[in-house]
Amino acid sequence: MIIQEYLDFLQERKRTTVSRSTRAAKIKRATGSLASAAAKKKNDPAYKKMVFHKKMWKKYKDMVMRKYAPRVRSQARR
């Protein structure tokens, strides 16, 4: 009987969570990702510092965002 209970347990459907976010949040995430990719492609010193100094990552991420966000925001909206 124990084996049958275990097999039934394995056959149960797994539940996944669905997180919902607004369109603005999706655009912000995409803009950040694209800004980092653009900075990496251009060998930006702020990007190199951002990667090297993990503790100061947020500061350098903000610098990269200020520089590249206007350029990549249109790509993020697609």
Rg is 21 Å
Largest sheet: none
Number of strands: 0
Count of separate DSSP helical elements: 4
Assign the structural class, choosing from mainly alpha, mainly beta, alpha/beta, alpha+beta, or little secondary structure.
mainly alpha
Oligomer: single chain
Gap between N and C termini: 55 Å
**What form results from the Cα inertia axes?**
elongated
Helix and strand succession?
HHHH
Brief synopsis:
The protein is mainly α. Helices cover 73% and strands 0% of the residues. It is elongated.
Write the SSE topology.
Blueprint (H helix, E strand, L loop, with lengths): L1 H10 L11 H19 L3 H8 L4 H20 L2
Helix pairs in contact: 2-4, 3-4
Description:
By secondary structure, the protein is an all-alpha fold. It has a domain at 44-78. 73% of the residues lie in helices and 0% in strands. It contains 4 helices and no strands. It has helices at 2-11, 23-41, 45-52, 57-76. Helix 2 (23-41) packs across helix 4 (57-76) and helix 3 crosses helix 4. The longest helix is centred in the C-terminal third of the chain and has 20 residues, at 57-76. The model has no long low-confidence stretch (mean pLDDT 79).
